[in-house]
Task: inverse folding
């Protein structure tokens, strides 16, 4: 299975999900009018990945902004990963936010409380 790589655009985050490394990166802005089209392919890839995952999966999220539609799909992505974590696959989420960005910090807290799995919230100093 190939890595999932989607280049960043004005409305889409950079996606680099490594099949052999087990490192999933989601970085940038997610402001889709129709996030379903963007995220459904990611969901399918993740489910396929967990048929033969790396020893440990690290999810690195460095979002600048996510609109409400995208936010729901990001939560769904985390729930899919949580399902595989609950099935015995070691996974951890690292959520990064900039020092002054309370909105992204609070979004990370919301996701952490929602998925109940290893989830570190880390500050990035400018």
Result:
């Amino acid at each position: 299975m190939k890595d999932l790589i989607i280049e960043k655009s004005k409305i889409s985050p950079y996606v680099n999900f490594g099949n052999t490394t087990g490192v999933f990166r989601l970085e940038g802005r997610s402001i889709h009018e129709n996030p379903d089209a963007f995220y459904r392919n990611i969901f399918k890839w993740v489910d396929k990945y967990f048929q033969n995952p790396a020893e440990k999966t690290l999810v690195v999220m460095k979002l600048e902004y996510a609109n409400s539609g995208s936010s729901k799909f990001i939560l769904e992505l985390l729930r899919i990963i949580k399902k595989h974590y609950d099935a015995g696959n070691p996974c951890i989420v690292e959520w990064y936010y900039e020092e002054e960005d309370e909105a992204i910090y609070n979004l990370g807290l919301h996701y952490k409380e929602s998925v109940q799995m290893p989830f570190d919230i880390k500050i990035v100093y400018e």
In short: The chain has three helices and six strands. The domain at 4-124 is CATH 3.30.750.24 (Transcription Regulator spoIIAA). The chain has one domain: 4-124. The first strand starts at residue 4 and ends at 6.
